[in-house]
């Protein structure tokens, strides 16, 4: 069901510094920051030959990553994102297997303009999992 690893997300306390670290320090291509108010984050992507690193920073009050940053002031790994061909079929299958979809269980549009859902970390070895529909 899952396809390629789309990205690994890292919450960072300073998005500009993290972008510089990956761009200037490691020589990677880093996208410009984009605010995603519906998700409560500002994001930039480090583009690698085989995947991406998503740099996440809290946006606004009640950001879902602010609590993570409060508990991990230096930042850290937040989630992994896997590609799926049909997100609704993936949700249906996973729910029958006992997995919990976070939020209202319905896909929302993510950073790449594609439908995404998040799966409860307790159901996936302590790892928050994002699924992103990339088509079949």
Description:
The chain has helices at 15-25, 66-71, 87-96; strands at residues 5-11, 29-30, 34-36, 41-47, 52-58, 76-84, 108-109, 115-119, 128-133. It is an alpha+beta fold. The protein starts with a strand and ends with a strand.
Key features of this structure:
20% helix, alpha+beta, 2,3-Dihydroxybiphenyl 1,2-Dioxygenase, domain 1, 9-stranded mixed sheet
Structure, briefly:
The protein is built from three helices and nine strands. It has 136 residues and is an alpha+beta fold.
Outline the low-pLDDT stretches.
none
How many β-strands, per DSSP? 9
User: Alpha-carbon distance between the termini?
Assistant: 11 Å
**The CATH class:** Alpha Beta
Query: Which architecture name does CATH use?
Result: Roll
Quick check: average pLDDT? 95
What number of structural domains do the residues give? 1
Task: Give the overall silhouette.
Answer: globular
The computed structural class is: alpha+beta
Largest sheet: 9 strands, mixed
Which sequence of SSEs, written as H and E, runs from N to C? EHEEEEHEHEEE
Question: At the fourth CATH level, what is the homologous superfamily?
Answer: 2,3-Dihydroxybiphenyl 1,2-Dioxygenase, domain 1
Rg, Cα atoms, Å: 15 Å
- Discrete helix count: 3
**Helicity, as a percent range:** 10-25%
Could you please say which CATH topology applies here?
2,3-Dihydroxybiphenyl 1,2-Dioxygenase, domain 1
* Amount of beta strand: 35-45%
Write the layout of secondary structure elements.
Elements: E1 5-11, H1 15-25, E2 29-30, E3 34-36, E4 41-47, E5 52-58, H2 66-71, E6 76-84, H3 87-96, E7 108-109, E8 115-119, E9 128-133
Parallel strand pairs: 1-5, 6-9
Antiparallel strand pairs: 1-6, 2-4, 3-4, 4-5, 7-8, 8-9
């Amino acid at each position: 069901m899952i396809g390629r690893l789309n990205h690994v997300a890292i919450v960072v306390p300073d998005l500009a510094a993290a972008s510089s670290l990956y761009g200037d320090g490691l020589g990677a291509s880093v996208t410009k920051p984009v605010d995603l108010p519906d998700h409560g984050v500002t994001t930039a992507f480090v583009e690698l030959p085989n995947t991406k690193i998503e740099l996440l920073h809290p946006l606004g009050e009640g950001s879902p990553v602010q609590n993570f940053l409060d508990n991990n002031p230096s930042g850290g790994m937040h989630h992994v994102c896997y590609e799926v061909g049909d997100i609704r079929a993936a949700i249906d299958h996973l729910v029958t297997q006992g997995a919990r979809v976070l939020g209202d269980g319905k896909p929302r549009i993510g950073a790449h303009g594609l439908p995404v859902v998040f799966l409860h970390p307790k159901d996936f070895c302590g790892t928050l999992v994002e699924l992103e529909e990339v088509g079949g």
